[in-house]
Amino acid sequence: MADRGCKATAEHRTIVLGGTFEVPAPRLYAALTEPLERARMGASGDRYARIIDETDFRVGGRDAFRFGLKGRPRLQGEAVYHQIVPSALIVSTEIVHAGETCVSIELVTLQLSARDLETDVKLTVQLLSLADDEDLVDEAGARHSALLDDLGRTFGTSRRDRGRPFSRR
After folding, report:
1. Does any domain span residue 6?
2. Any idea what DSSP says for residue 117?
3. For a surface tag, which of 34, 36, 109, 133 has the fewest beta carbons within 10 Å of its beta carbon?
């Protein structure tokens, strides 16, 4: 397979984000997994746009997506789902490109914990950075924070932990 613009060295990053959202876990899970809900949330932000071109949400299923600044989403990606526990856990891997440049390969773990009428969310991304352009890598990581921002706009949040979204490890 061609290198698709990947650099010869790799940098590892860990992104840990979370928050408590004012919605029961099954409703939050539905917003994360149902195509119409995902499309509506992806269009709600002021800065970024997330477009899901294809979706097959099941273990072994794949999503094709685009992401970036509104009006010019320059990143394309594919997610593969490896573990799904309804209303509790979603584990996927993602490969992100900008044209022919391989930006990142990611292991994404999204954990939901029900608390009465609220849901605690913990999003952990282990990101292998392969692009020479650090702005592209930062933009790839920003889409995870944008997802939680969209959840907050949609459902309200009682606590939002922005963590260290681009920490290098």
Report:
1. no
2. T
3. 36
Task: Quote the tokens at residue 22.
Answer: 């004012």
Beta bridge partners of 69: 48, 72
User: Residues 119-165: pLDDT tens digits?
Assistant: 999 999 999 988 777 776 777 677 888 888 888 888 887 666 655 44
The mean per-residue pLDDT over the stretch 73-97 comes to 95
In this prediction, residues 26-48 reach a mean pLDDT of 80
Higher-pLDDT residue of 147, 9? 147
- Per-residue confidence band for 48, with pLDDT thresholds at 50, 70 and 90: confident
Number of domains observed in the structure of the chain: 1
Determine the residue type at 138.
D
Q: Is 145 helix (H, G, I), strand (E, B) or coil?
A: helix
* Full residue range of the structural domain in which residue 64 is found: 11-168
**Domain CATH code at residue 135:** 3.30.530.20
Residue 139 φ/ψ region, left for φ over 0, alpha for ψ in the -120 to 50 degree band, beta for the rest = alpha
pLDDT of 126 reads: 94
**Long-range contacts of 27-32, Cβ-Cβ distance < 8 Å, separation of 24 or more:** 27/155, 28/87, 28/112, 28/119, 28/121, 28/151, 28/155, 29/86, 29/87, 29/88, 29/112, 31/151, 31/154, 31/155, 32/90, 32/110
Asked whether residue 4 is domain-assigned, the answer is no
